[in-house]
Write a structure and sequence with these properties.
Length: 170
Amino acid sequence: MRVEPENRYFAEIGARAYRTTVSGFIDIVLSEAFAKVELDTVDGKKMLKGLRSKLWDVDEEDRLVKLALTCPDLLNYNEQKIWKLIRETAVFWKGRWYNNQMDEVEWSVDLEHIRWQMVRRHWNLLQAIANGLEDRAALDSLKDDSADGPVNDDASPPDDGRPPDDDIPF
């Protein structure tokens, strides 16, 4: 990260005053600044500090989805391309067959319907397509190897002959 020489100097002085490293001091200052940054979200104006737990994830692909669903206007161009690919590809969403026909799927674009494992599994392909290294047609050949088609949210668990969990004594 590039920092102006004057700001670097004062960060060093601030770090000495806090008896920490420059990096530690910058973390402190950034945390305080997050309380002052207001974002336009899909739910109205929110402070950045209040969105930290909603937006942060250790996985880059999860962060992109969370940011896209919360503050879509803040996506950079490359993120917009990846988000469009995710949004428009059925295998990344829990959905259902449209009009009981087995050739068309409908889904909702929200946190409850994202198929995190599929996005994570195909993240490198999504990046390659967004960067022009792969053809978009590669998404058409993706198979959902966890089921034969879209996830049915109303499906009951299969009967495996075992008693239901409410018979377990703990």
